[in-house]
Known about the structure:
The chain is mainly alpha-helical. The protein has helices at about 20-25, 40-50, 65-95, 105-125, 140-150, 160-170, 175-195; strands at about 30-35, 35-40.
Amino acid sequence: xxxxxxxxxxxxxxxxxxxxxxxxxxxxVPVLQDxxxxxxESHAILKxxxxxxxxxxxxxxxxPIKRARVDELLDWHHCFLRQGAGNTVFKTLFGPKIGMxxxxxxxxxxxxxxxxxxxxxxxxFLGNHKFLLSDELTIADxxxxxxxxxxxxxxxxxxxxxxxxxxxxxxxxxxxxxxxCKPVKKFIKMFNDQxx
Length: 196
């Protein structure tokens, strides 16, 4: 899908400016602009792109049962994995960089959710197919893959989770995914190198 990327520097709080809040009043990324319309939240953006562009059906199947399975994973992602991964990364690394403080108990709670989520992903959702639901990618695979990529900030290698490791490597080896993730991984490496 052709697009124009506009970077928003979160560590410089560009997402909290009045100009950005005209696009997304919540001051969050990502945001998709399509003509005069703005869309927020990654899952809504993925679903919108699938329904408005000529995308293969496997990404977000038209079959109601298959689509519901994708939606289950997307909801699980935001309810569990995001609560563990996103909050652990933010509260241990980024929040303190901008002066925010969190209790050890709060951080440990998110780490527990992360551990539980990774265990569930590895033992309940992966291992039966090449990808989460079949041998073809869905938007749920992409969404969860991106969340796991952020765990690079914590230097996680998934060695405890063989199904995640195999699945992650399969997606990471896709040329288009690798190209899109290259700047993210470069930033993660730069960030981690500064912590050493």
